Amino acid sequence: MLDPLGSPPAWLREFFEPFALKLSSPTLADHAHEVILAFVFYQVIHSFVSPWLSAILFPQSYPKLSPRTKLNWDIHVVSLVQSVLINAAALWVMYVDEERWSMSSAERIFGYTGACGLIQALAVGYFVYDLIVSAVHIKMFGVGMLFHAISALWVFSLGFRPFLNYYAPTFILYELSSPFLNIHWFLDKVNMTGSRAQWYNGMALLGMFFSCRLVWGTWQSVVVYSDMWNALQQTWAAQASPLLEPTNISAHVFYPTRDGGMCIDETCARANAEISRFKEYTASGVPTWLVLTYVGSNIILNFLNYYWFSQMVETVLKRFRTPEKKDERSPEKPEEVSQKVVLEAAAKLAEDENALRRSELLPSPEQIASGIDVGALGDELRKRRAELVAKVPLPGA
């Protein structure tokens, strides 16, 4: 499928092409306009739309926030818009891109379609914004958030080689849980902690996290590992060739049937030919270091997803192992217990993921108190904050 937004202006493509080739990312020149537009779009939301619209929609909450919390609010607004937009675009591309559906194992590693390139460009544009925000406010958010932005930008930029262009929509679906994570944060800031709305959102967050990150993510990781192994085998075969001239493995990757001969219109022919359009840049195969780096990053991310989910499960189980003492004259209703369990689990999940972005590997007493406070339905646990903070020792104490 061709890029739905079309090619960039000729002058812009000519300007970016030397840099793209120098970075071994030839497809970047075809999507430079989308990266720029995405970055500008998210920056405008952060600087103008969010402050203006938030003050109108939440006049009792947003204007009273501290400068640091307002900055966090605007960042979460951008994250919410970005996650909804890119998830919708990824699902649409996966559904309508017929050339993507027809790719073989090797083509999923080396092949290219403009529609998948669009998804990469939207992601890279957001991560450029994220990188700049993290760098400008490094004293506020710490080095961890900066490294997170750098690593995310680097991994998605690899698709412009092209490398795993096919999997751009696949793995961006990890972000399906992000809208609910952002909504959970907003509900806390508008004094709706423990509300029924947060309970419903918490159930959606936990269900989506399990479905898209654990089930979908693990399955697709196995598939991409298999595809990359096949690609490495072809690379090794080419390197071990006794021929004087280097073997062009594109003959094994891109099939002659991709010449568009069966198409009935020019668009179909161009879309089929586009899969092997950059074959001269991938003819030598995929570097081993690149595969190992990508696999390592993917394994770490999957491990963190399982760790976060295990912490969430532990939070749920702890509720049933050590139930709170209640006045027998006013026993807690089953639906209230269920609501607290969901909210505490969702709060734990949100805290763990945000802590990773800030490199807070060990939770501070304030974080622990905040996490427990989110799971409460009333003011009772808020009164225990000071007591809980006093009991939890500081790291290194």
TrEMBL record:
Principal location: membrane
GO BP annotations, alphabetical order: lipid homeostasis
GO cellular component terms, A-Z: endoplasmic reticulum; membrane
Membrane topology type: Multi-pass membrane protein
Location of the protein in the cell: Membrane
Domain TLC: 68-321
Keyword annotations: Membrane, Transmembrane, Transmembrane helix
Membrane-spanning parts: 35-59, 71-94, 109-129, 141-160, 166-187, 199-219, 289-309
Domain of life of the native organism: Eukaryota
Name used for this protein in its record: TLC domain-containing protein
The species this protein was found in: Penicillium atrosanguineum
